[in-house]
Amino acid sequence: MRWSARTRRAHLPPLERVQALTQPAGGPSVSLDLLTRADLVVLGALADASNLALLVRLEDDEGPLAIYKPIRGERPLWDFPDGSLAAREVAAHLISTTGGWDVVPETVLRDGPRGPGSVQRWVGDPETPPDHVVDVVAPDAVPQGWLAVLRGEDERGRPVLVVHEDSPVVRAVAAFDAVINNSDRKGSHLVREGDRLRGFDHGVSLHEEPKLRTVLWGFAGQPLPDDDLARITRVSDALADGGSSLRAGLAPLLTPGEVTALQARCAALLDHAAYPVPSGDWPAIPWPPL
Is the C-alpha dihedral spanning 111, 112, 118, 123 positive or negative? Predict the structure, then answer.
């Protein structure tokens, strides 16, 4: 690959209902409860965010950090007319938790100083540059074991490659993205947290139509690992159970058609047991890729 220079909008469900449905089956964790109930102290807006994203502290000046994305700050998208981006952020967290990927940090839908929106635990130290698993390097500087997915040129016309790490945690994220039909997996949306890899910005995911757009194409066509097949199976089984907490949790967040499409993607991935490949019907790489 190479790069160069519906009409119905769903109503926001009652907040109390969503808050109850987004708690884990074993009871609310301290983190989710804090995200849901704490006062949000706004510190400022993220300058590079395409929609309004506010950095907040929970409760007071000593509380943990979170990202608050009010629905009223979302820019309308022609291809995502239903529901809200905030609801899709919460849906991605539910799927990540159900499958056992543990990719999406704790995320809730709640009211806030700018109205209802998603609140997600901040991962990392805002003062420390994050350790990413995607990079842009010269063709002769690809780290050992990393995979190239895109050729390009820098501002001086010199050739560069977009590369990503080949590791179990990155493979797991690629499988998760295929499940949720992630339309915006940029390199900057992945950050290490200890031995885990966290992913952010899942507001443009879970569409009915195939829209997978990612920088993690290095695994395209390869067999899915057994661990990820098991995770996809857990999601598929939960969706097949009409009384499951996942099914109930997704109901106020997505349209019935989007839930049906999610179930179909899980079935297709389990049937093929391989990572998807770019279809050619939709841009395969997000812009910018990082």
Answer: negative
